[in-house]
Amino acid sequence: MLSALHRKVSKSLENPALAWNLVRSQWLRALGPREYISVDGNRAESERGAYVACVQRAARDYRAFRRFKRHPSYQAILEHVRRGMGAEYIEVIRRQTPELLARIEQFKENDRVGDPITQVYPETGAISPTTLRYVKVASDLQCLFGADFGGKVAEIGPGYGGQALIDDRIFAISRVDLFDLPPVLALISRYLESFALRGTYRCLTLNQCAGDEDYDLVVSNLAFSELPSAVQRLYIRKVLSRSKRGYMVMDSGFPHSEFTEDHLSVDELRALLPPFEILEERPASAPHNYLLVWGHRPGALSV
Predict the structure, then answer these.
(1) Range of the domain at 32
(2) Which one, of 29, 7, 14, lies nearest residue 117 by Cα?
(3) pTM for the predicted model, two decimal places
(4) Which of 32, 58, 75 corresponds to the end of one domain?
(5) CA 167 to CA 189: how far, in whole Å?
(6) Domain assignment present for 303
(7) Rounded-to-integer distance, Cα 298 and Cα 294, Å
């Protein structure tokens, strides 16, 4: 089986600059500065030393912040969506929620910070494929839960805050609680403060969460599924089990999943989470990835 990095490189060959950056990220991982937050055993699959060091620099240094979406160590974790996948996202958005595609110029504001690699599509003009992914996820949320699912949202592993920004423009979210590592939260705060939000946000680590909040929706794009099982259980107790609705892109849980070591299985998740349904991720961000959702309208994505 190809490693996650090899798949990212092979998928990004249509964009040589991105493919080269992904290869460079391995050199930086081995030779560049490294920082870790969690002790070994509590680290997510994505908590690589080079990534954390890159995030810390972008959060405190304006020059690094201006172009952080192009840094090889950052693109190894985020900002590696290929051009072809962006075209597939456009088709899903057009089919599910054409009204969102009509607002694409508004969503391009996500590309104004961080200098992402953009691609030109006939339907949208120049736009980052990652931004298209965020709009596609918002399209899924609207189909699954309706346009008015409640104002209190939690997001586990929010990257730099791009999904939160797009969701703020589409839904009436009064507050989103963003859960991640301290340096990532610092970058998120710097990023979101670059814009004027309609709602509000809070940056929290799991340890700062008392577990006494109820949520209308919890969202996670791979982050929850890549956590060690002990940390997954804490998130379930403090956040997921207290959410009326859930939307999680998963790359663990099955024997054939990308990540299989020390992650909760689907059977274990069924015993701990609200009753959920497993759906096909369309388009699939990687082989065997899937959606885990609850509190939704059945059949809403069967298009």
Answers:
(1) 4-75
(2) 14
(3) 0.86
(4) 75
(5) 16
(6) no
(7) 9
Pairing status of strand 125-127 against strand 119-121: antiparallel
- Taking the C-alpha atoms of residue 247 and residue 137, their distance in angstroms, rounded to an integer, is 9
SS3 percent helix, strand, coil of the chain, rounded to 5, is: 45, 15, 40
Per-residue buried b or exposed e for 259-295, using 16+ beta carbons within 10 Å of the residue's own CB: beeebbebeebeeebeebeebebbeeeeeebbbbbbb
Number of compact structural domains in the chain? 3
Same domain, 266 and 195: yes
Containing 72, the helix (H) or strand (E) segment is helix 72-75
Query: Cα separation of 75 and 226, whole Å?
Result: 17
- For residue 224, give every residue at least 6 positions away whose Cβ sits within 8 Å of its Cβ, in sequence order, or none: 156, 157, 232, 235, 240, 248, 250
At 2 the pLDDT is: 40
In this structure, are 208 and 282 located in the same domain? Answer: yes
Q: How confident is the model at residue 254 (pLDDT cuts 50, 70, 90)?
A: very high
Q: How many Cα atoms are found within 13 Å in the side-chain-facing hemisphere of 236? A: 18
Q: Residue 140's beta-bridge partner residues?
A: none
What is the residue-averaged pLDDT of the chain? 88
pLDDT tier at 301 (50, 70, 90 boundaries)?
A: confident
Residues 239 and 149 in one domain: yes
In order of 35, 227, 246, 275, 276, the CA distances from 220 in angstroms are 24, 11, 8, 17, 15
